């Protein structure tokens, strides 16, 4: 294993994921599928990493990431780092697409994809600020590393670690129930067929 190896895990599906609600800095519990996805991640890690103790494990402080880490890391307690919390999405948080459209019709219509929503959320953090805090995290990070975090956080980390700029991240998916391995600037998705979401 490369000393620079980094493994990224997104939290399992939550109630709000299933309902299409943006969570951001808020939280909702893992669904039964989400719990199975975390168990799937544990199996993937056990297959590829015989000794997790060689890795420094980090997790977001948000409960959905903490719950996933507790399952996926098989009892290894991660370092909680607030810089790994999900992007704050301001007034979008807790709203379904229909609710966003009803409350912010012009702004919601102008957002053509998820990144438009993240960047333009009223009162939100924005991708540039998120990138700055994640750069600071990477500067302090011990390697090799396992990180349990969130959709947007992991997309931006993948960009920083593989040399992709923000526009290039629009084409990436952020699946649940898998492990993304990054070493020497290249990424590989470690997955099994069961319990994987797009």
What does this structure look like?
- This protein has 198 residues and is of the alpha/beta class.
- The chain is built from 9 helices and 6 strands; from the N terminus they run E-H-H-E-H-E-H-H-H-H-E-H-H-E-E.
- It has helices spanning 15-19, 32-48, 63-72, 97-103, 105-110, 114-120, 127-140, 151-162, 166-169, and strands spanning 6-10, 56-59, 79-80, 145-149, 179-183, 186-190.
- Strand 2, helix 3 (63-72) and strand 3 form a beta-alpha-beta unit.
- It holds the Pfam family His_Phos_1.
- The active site is at 11 (tele-phosphohistidine intermediate), 86 (proton donor/acceptor).
- InterPro entries: His_Pase_superF_clade-1 (IPR013078), His_PPase_superfam (IPR029033), PG/BPGM_mutase_AS (IPR001345), PGM_Phosphatase (IPR050275).
Record keyword descriptors for this entry.
glycolysis; alpha/beta; 198 residues; 6-stranded mixed β-sheet; single chain; Rossmann fold; PGM_Phosphatase
How many beta-strand segments? Answer: 6
Low-confidence stretches: 193-198
Instruction: Report on the biggest sheet.
Output: 6 strands, mixed
* CATH-defined topology: Rossmann fold
Number of helices: 9
Measure the end-to-end span. 28 Å
The main sheet orders its strands as 3-2-4-1-5-6
Q: What structural category do the secondary elements indicate?
A: alpha/beta
Mean pLDDT: 92
Fraction of helical residues = 40-55%
Name the CATH architecture.
Answer: 3-Layer(aba) Sandwich
CATH class: Alpha Beta
Measured by DSSP, the beta-strand proportion falls in 5-15%
Number of domains: 1
Name the helix and strand elements from N-terminus to C-terminus, one letter apiece.
Answer: EHHEHEHHHHEHHEE
